[in-house]
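Subject: Sanity check before I submit

Could someone independently write out the structure tokens for this chain? I want to compare against mine line by line before I put it in a report. The sequence has 125 residues.
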Amino acid sequence: MVKEYMGRLFVVTLEGSIYSCKHCKTHLGLSDDIISKAFHCRHGKAYLFDKVVNVTVGEKEERMMITGMHTVVDIFCVGCGLIVGWKYESAHEKIQKYKEGKFILERFKVLGPDESMYVLGQEIQ
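---
Independent answer below. Compare away.
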């Protein structure tokens, strides 16, 4: 998720259709790595990504979600420290196992590929 060499962080620069941190514009993920745009969080839309970059993870915790109990870790932007979503470590229900090892980016906290923002349930330029 983050490249580290001898204690120094190296931010990964992505090319293509990029989602980035709303606050500091650090690259987080590519449109090609989106598995689903049908997820929701407290602030509206959330996207399920196969992989993301330039994030660090918090402590594991059990979290009850709409789809049941999951073990998750919050993910933080390495540029500014903003929580941008979470990673599914494990799912307790068999039908939810496809989420394991995948990442959620909360649309409210990221800029879209065209630098659009998600505010109050809609995309704005």
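---
OP: Matches mine. For the report I'm noting this point. The chain has no helices and 14 strands.
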